[in-house]
């Protein structure tokens, strides 16, 4: 089985993210970078698929040279190969990104063989356009399911499960397929020390990204209004108990 | 948001291990009306304390740091926050095994239980270690992991419970206000985002942010935030199965600068091997902009990778462990790797308690609390950590970064007691530098000054003094040392030598109040006739040594203090702090403008007589009677205006000669030309500070003279005490009234032969003096007998040691032992007290 997982280098969550003065970019002075959480799960899924069914996994990203870090992180938990589509300018729009990735996939497949499954994260953690995976699937003419929280491979077919409002939707697809994975499908492993060291030796193939600018253009970034959380002291000591009970009932925890 | 109080007696900024313990100790010492601030939340405001690995290896070669570490560990034990697991420093190289012998010696000195262990014994204690790559280990059973946050909380809560402390977390300091005062600005108030607090005292205990906070008041705390990489890896079966937080000793893999410390089911791997990564305090992210805390930055993996390989080599199981938490943790580094403590020289009542590790935090908090309470700490001498030790050039970011870049990788290094800095050299050169360089000087650093330690030009003297050419068999003993020092010593004693003393500091005190002021500062009577001098200790309020220097009376109202390069900053601060506020005394630091040589030896007078004249060009009378010992005179030397001071630190007749920097070279050339017929030589500091001095038993500030000892014990008490009051007088009188608990002694080594059959040469690095039974010697005040200076008594043919001994051992002829590199050598007490071993009557010097 050949599995491809596409990831994106994004600022690590957990802290206030500042913008540059011109509002055109994120201020990276204090930032660490990571892979979008949905994609971390996609990487884990790719590793597990190959562990279960044999074959080979590849990670691909379109991003700056520093995105090498995310490729090697994926390699450190067990992905076999890595492809970088290096870009120098700021973020590409989803249309152009998808076009470049689809083209790169065709190139890779032309030499190494077709991917049975191409995995994406459901959406990126930074821009959240929800587009690239769908556009790539469309360009490649392959079936696509988004929001996937379960993957089962059976011969040439794949069952993809996703949560619906009331229940679970199960899709059956014939490979090759494209799947958009959602956080919760698995618990991504941490890299081991050996994995980290092995990842340094993985060769990262570079594919020059092509594609024309799409219709979507970033005008400016705006800092989201700070969410102010308020602390209410319910009381001190045993006297606070009734207020705590009231609150728990109000929240539906106690009935 | 609650408002801060408008006034306080003391505001402590920073609720890490130091700030928390400091308010606790201040409370115990009776302080009230205190405020503790931190910009972060409690109990972990986000400084270095919060991510510390929290273990304590008590052995340190440095007495001050060893004392404070052991004291701190005892405080953690008392707080119930000490988890003893033992620790093993392991060696991969023979050099490290040698270092472990030295560690055994320091452990003996400080009374720490430790032993050398074989690879097999290490394996027994730590079954998952790869003992095959190890040569051995240094095992300390008392190594522990402490809970620094809980200990800090406990100390803080104690002060709150005593009703003397208000605590404000999430409170940012916006400014520090000062007010003009005589002698320099004084701290006035702390401006916070919750209001302004007027305060008598402010303490900066802000760890990596300390420079930024101090700068708000115009003070400089010289440290830099620096990265220490650490990763928590796991789960690991054998650790999980232990069911304990700490079931195995902590391993320090000394030769890879790495440690492995169990943390329940996982292992913390920490590194001091990566490239130095320094930051600026202002570049540390805010709390809001930090994913974890401001001092837990994302690990830069490329820097850590080599360490991972070494860790796996030592413990294969680590290879399959997952990296679950990995940081570039920030900690504080200073130019000399010591803490930065005490009142800032720039701002009165603004205190620094910074660059402190968890292992020494509670002890240092107590030390600073005592300093604030008593005017000087009681528990131990803090001179190595005193913020006033730094000269201006040492407080620049340039210097801090250069030295920290140099010493970061020595955190687990093997550092020789005489080791010299490679960076920031050549910053201060005497006018004689070019001549010295041409004479093949090897320069040592003296707080920026380049001082010749010995001269290769003097190797020719080996033909004359073949006994001087003794090499030292063991590389360690001969490192940063050269036998030519012995030859220089002998030639000086036989004829005449010249020592560059430009690193001296010269402080002028002038005005109608000068006599009274200096008498208040000094033990001995400074009111000597004009043209005479006095050698005197300066005491702490509790009667220990604070300084040791000479004072020349140049005029009725004009005194000049001469003090050494290593004490200049601290002495400058101490005089300035006490300077009268009525304008009756002016203090001028003339050090930058004055250069100095010492000319000593039996032919010193004959040499100088050829070129010394008075202002009528008449030859100057340099005879014993005409220019008595201790006299200070204005003399022309070959036409150069000089001040000649008849004094000696090496036990020979001669003079310290001072002149202005621009005259220096002419003075040097004139002296050497005049001395040619006497085979005059340049003499290095190796003679001045060690061999010449130790034969005379002269004490050195910072070695023999520390605040833990008084002049009676040091043998420096004069027969009478002046009537004028002076700092430490009451304690001094009390010390005179009782028998000393220790006596400074000169000892000689009866044999230097080690087990391998060759001679060893202790470096004077706190080697313990032991009884013949091998027991430590501790005096009635709890102070251990240890070597304070060691060196060859070249003219005596003996290897000499200085050490304080309790009276029962301070008996001439008493046989004892000294431990050096974990071997014991027989020694004999040669002198108890200050009588010189060489020329006991001082005839050579004083006639």
UniProtKB/TrEMBL annotation, chain A:
Residues 23-209 form the Electron transfer flavoprotein alpha/beta-subunit N-terminal domain. InterPro entries: ETF_a/b_N, ETF_b, Rossmann-like_a/b/a_fold. SMART domains: ETF (SM00893). GO terms for molecular function: electron transfer activity. Pfam families: ETF. PANTHER family: ELECTRON TRANSFER FLAVOPROTEIN BETA-SUBUNIT. This is Unannotated protein. It comes from freshwater metagenome. The lineage of its organism: unclassified sequences, metagenomes, ecological metagenomes.
Automatic annotation (TrEMBL), chain B:
GO terms for cellular component: mitochondrion. SUPFAM superfamilies: Aminomethyltransferase beta-barrel domain, FAD-linked reductases, C-terminal domain, FAD/NAD(P)-binding domain, Folate-binding domain. Residues 9-371 form the FAD dependent oxidoreductase domain. Residues 381-430 form the FAD dependent oxidoreductase central domain. Gene3D superfamilies: Aminomethyltransferase beta-barrel domains, D-Amino Acid Oxidase, subunit A, domain 2, FAD/NAD(P)-binding domain, Probable tRNA modification gtpase trme, domain 1. Belongs to the GcvT family. This is Unannotated protein.
């Amino acid at each position: 089985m050949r599995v491809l997982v596409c990831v994106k280098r994004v600022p690590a969550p957990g802290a206030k993210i500042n913008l540059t003065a011109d509002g055109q970019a994120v201020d990276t002075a204090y930032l660490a970078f990571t892979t979008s959480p949905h994609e971390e799960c996609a990487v884990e899924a790719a590793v597990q698929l190959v562990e279960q069914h044999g074959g080979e996994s590849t990670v691909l990203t379109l991003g700056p040279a520093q995105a090498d870090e995310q490729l090697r992180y994926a390699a450190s938990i067990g992905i076999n190969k890595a492809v970088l589509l290096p870009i120098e300018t700021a973020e590409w729009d989803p249309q152009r990104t998808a076009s470049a990735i689809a083209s790169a996939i065709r190139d890779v497949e032309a030499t190494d063989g077709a991917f049975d499954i191409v995995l994406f994260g459901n959406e990126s953690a930074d821009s959240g356009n929800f587009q690239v995976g769908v556009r790539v699937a469309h360009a490649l003419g392959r079936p696509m399911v988004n929001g996937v929280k379960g993957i089962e491979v059976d011969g040439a077919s794949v069952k993809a499960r996703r949560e619906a409002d009331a229940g679970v939707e199960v899709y059956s697809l014939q490979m090759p397929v494209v799947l958009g994975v959602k956080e919760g499908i698995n618990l991504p492993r941490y890299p081991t020390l050996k994995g980290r060291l092995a990842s340094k030796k993985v060769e990262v193939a570079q594919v020059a990204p092509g594609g024309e600018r799409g219709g979507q253009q970033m005008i400016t970034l705006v800092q989201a209004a700070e969410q102010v959380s308020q602390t209410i002291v319910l009381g001190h000591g045993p006297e606070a108990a009734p207020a705590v009970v009231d609150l728990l009932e109000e929240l539906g925890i106690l009935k | 948001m609650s408002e801060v109080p408008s006034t306080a007696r003391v505001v402590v900024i920073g609720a890490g291990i130091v700030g928390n313990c400091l308010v606790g100790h201040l409370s115990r010492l009776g302080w009230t009306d205190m405020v503790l601030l931190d910009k972060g939340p409690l109990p972990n405001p986000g400084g270095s304390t919060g991510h510390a690995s929290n273990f304590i290896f008590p052995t340190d070669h440095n007495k001050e740091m060893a004392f404070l570490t052991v004291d701190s560990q005892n405080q953690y034990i008392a707080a119930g926050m000490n988890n003893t697991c033992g620790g093993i420093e392991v060696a991969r190289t023979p050099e490290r095994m040698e270092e472990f012998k030295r560690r055994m010696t320091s452990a003996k000195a400080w009374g720490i239980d430790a032993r050398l262990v074989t690879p097999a014994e290490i394996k027994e204690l730590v079954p998952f270690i790869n003992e095959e790559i190890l040569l051995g280990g240094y095992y300390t059973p008392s190594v522990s992991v402490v809970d620094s946050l809980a200990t800090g909380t406990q100390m803080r809560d104690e002060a709150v419970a005593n009703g003397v402390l208000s605590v404000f977390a999430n409170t940012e300091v916006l400014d520090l206000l000062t007010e003009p005062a005589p002698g320099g600005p004084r701290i006035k108030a702390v401006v916070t985002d919750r209001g302004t607090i007027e305060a008598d005292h402010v303490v900066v205990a802000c760890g990596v942010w300390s420079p930024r906070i101090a700068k708000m008041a115009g003070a400089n705390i010289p440290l830099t935030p620096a990265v220490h990489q650490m990763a928590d890896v796991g789960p690991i079966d054998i650790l999980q199965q232990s069911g304990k937080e700490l079931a195995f000793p902590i391993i320090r893999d000394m030769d890879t600068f790495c440690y492995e410390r169990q943390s329940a089911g996982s292992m913390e791997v920490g590194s001091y091997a990566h490239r130095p990564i320094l930051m600026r305090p202002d570049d540390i992210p805010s709390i809001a902009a930090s994913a974890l805390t401001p001092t837990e930055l994302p690990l830069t993996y490329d820097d850590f990778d080599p360490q991972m390989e070494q860790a796996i080599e030592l413990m294969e199981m680590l290879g399959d462990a997952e990296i679950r938490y990995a940081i570039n943790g920030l900690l504080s580094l200073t130019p000399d790797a010591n803490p930065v403590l005490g009142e800032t020289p720039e701002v009165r009542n603004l205190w620094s308690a910074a660059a402190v590790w968890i292992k020494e935090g509670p002890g240092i908090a107590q030390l600073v609390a005592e300093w604030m309470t008593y005017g000087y700490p009681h528990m131990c001498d803090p001179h190595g950590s005193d913020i006033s030790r730094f000269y201006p050039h040492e407080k620049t970011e340039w210097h801090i970064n250069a030295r920290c870049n140099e010493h970061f990788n020595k955190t687990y290094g093997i550092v020789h007691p005489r080791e010299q800095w490679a960076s920031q050299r050549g910053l201060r050169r005497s006018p004689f530098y070019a001549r010295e360089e041409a004479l093949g000087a090897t320069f040592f650093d003296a707080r920026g000054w380049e001082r010749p330690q010995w001269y290769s030009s003097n190797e020719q003297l080996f033909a004359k003094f073949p006994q001087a050419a003794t090499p030292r068999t063991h590389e360690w003993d001969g490192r940063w040392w050269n036998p030519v020092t012995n030859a220089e010593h002998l030639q000086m004693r036989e004829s005449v030598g010249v020592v560059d003393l430009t690193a001296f500091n010269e402080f002028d005190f002038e005005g109608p109040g000068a006599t009274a002021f200096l008498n208040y500062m000094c033990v001995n009577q400074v009111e000597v006739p004009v043209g005479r001098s006095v050698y005197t200790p300066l005491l702490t309020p509790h009667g220990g040594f604070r300084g040791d220097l000479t004072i020349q009376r140049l005029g009725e109202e004009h005194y000049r203090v001469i003090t050494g390069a290593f004490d200049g900053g601290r002495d400058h601060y101490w005089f300035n702090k006490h300077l009268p506020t009525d304008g009756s005394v002016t203090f001028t630091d003339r050090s930058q403008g004055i250069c100095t040589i010492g000319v000593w030896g039996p032919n010193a007078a004959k040499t100088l007589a050829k070129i010394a004249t008075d202002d009528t060009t008449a030859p100057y009378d340099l005879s014993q009677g005409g220019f008595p010992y201790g006299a200070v005179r204005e003399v022309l030397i070959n036409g150069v205006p000089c001040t000649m001071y008849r004094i000696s630190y090496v036990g020979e007749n001669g003079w310290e000669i001072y002149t202005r920097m621009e005259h220096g070279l002419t003075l040097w050339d004139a002296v050497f030309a005049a001395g040619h017929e006497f085979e005059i030589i340049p003499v290095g500091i190796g003679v001045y500070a060690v061999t010449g001095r130790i034969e005379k038993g002269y004490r050195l500030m910072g070695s023999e003279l520390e605040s833990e000892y008084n002049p009676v014990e040091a043998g420096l008490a004069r027969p009478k005490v002046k009537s004028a009051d002076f700092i430490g007088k009451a304690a001094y009188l009390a010390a005179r009234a009782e028998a000393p608990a220790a006596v400074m002694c000169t000892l000689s080594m009866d044999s230097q032969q080690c087990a391998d059959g060759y001679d060893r040469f202790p470096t004077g690095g706190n080697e313990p003096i032991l009884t013949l039974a091998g027991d430590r010697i501790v005096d009635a005040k709890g102070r251990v007998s240890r070597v304070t200076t060691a060196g060859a008594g070249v003219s005596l043919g003996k290897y000499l040691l200085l050490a304080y001994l309790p009276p029962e051992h301070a008996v001439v002829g008493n046989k004892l032992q000294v431990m050096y590199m974990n071997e014991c050598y027989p020694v004999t007490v040669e002198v108890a007290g200050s009588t010189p071993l060489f020329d006991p009557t001082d005839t050579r010097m004083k006639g």
